Amino acid sequence: MFSRSSVRRVALWTLCVCVATFGAGCGPRPEGAVDPLVDTDLTAGPEVSEFTVMAWNIWHGGNDGQLDEDGRPHVIEIIRNSGADIVLMVETYGIGQMVSEALGFNYHLIAEPGTAPDDPDINLSVHSRFPLGERIDFYRYFNSGGIEIELSPTQKIVVFDTWFRYEPWADEPERLGKSPAELVEWERSGTRPEQVTAILDGMQPWVDNAGEVPVIMGGDHNVESHLDWTDEARALNGGLSVPWWTSSTIAERGFVDTYRLINPSPVTHRGITWDMRDKPDEARIDFIYWVGDKIRPLSSEIYMAR
Fold this sequence. Notes:
alpha+beta; Deoxyribonuclease I, Chain A; 6-stranded mixed sheet; 19% helix; globular
């Protein structure tokens, strides 16, 4: 989200982190399989069998003005302690090069080529323990961008970092007095459909090739998921089951929500990533999606980091 105090900044330093671990070389998930774990000794030689992706809005460059101390060292510590191999960062705002240098990671700033690596106005960045390949630019740098990541000489993935505009937003959309269909139309008001469609269209060539080179998309989408507003979860959502347009459209393009794949119940695993202090606005609005049978999620979690 933009210009709000949230779960990403509570007390001194409390932030929501989305992390998914993938198995490489897994092939399609067997029909009816329920155990998300696979043998880690899947490949021989230099090939990678597992890697972990973090999607994280670090909140105003990790150094919001209301913090009691410089939060940037905490960003580095949280990433290091998470074991993440790849970080899809939102609200980078000048800290990206510092983070990657401290971690010994490769760094891609999603901005016009030639932009200073510590430019304080740049939103999105990718940080990777693995070597980086070709950059992928389309639409607006502030909202999306991608890059190839070379897991090994014979393994490659493509990652996209994304931020969708937050309007329209309601702290409690179930209290707007709208039906599920009206809520979907409300969600589609403003510029959201144009933006989301343009970003997904820009990714489509890589999605079409995901059988050869898997694709991971993560980021802050500033809208709830249809997978969290199901019949099972009506009691949590004002008695409503809502097929939210943004997440439904992403799913129609072939992307799988890793958190809901591993944690199917929105009742037992709400996965809250947004929670403003003293305000009932809890929601899951940050995601890690994936498409491509050469990898699959082994775990996916959302947790609070201090």
